[in-house]
Amino acid sequence: MTSPQFRPLAELSFEEARDELIEIVSKLEAGGAPLEHSLALWERGEALAARCQQWLDGARERIEAAKIKDDATNETSDDA
Fold it and tell me: What are the residue ranges spanned by the domains of the chain?
């Protein structure tokens, strides 16, 4: 069995990375794959988890920035 081919992480949306991670976890839990294939899946899963975390961190930063902007706008309108 050859090592699986994967799309580059930078091309994946959060949902695509999450769905692929779920698929990999299912495959690893099912077992039966050769060691090298399982290791490749594990490594890909770790990378996907990190990519999902990047997406979540970016979303959190955007929300915080929007809150700060909203708070500043509200303070300005309260002063008027």
Answer: 14-79
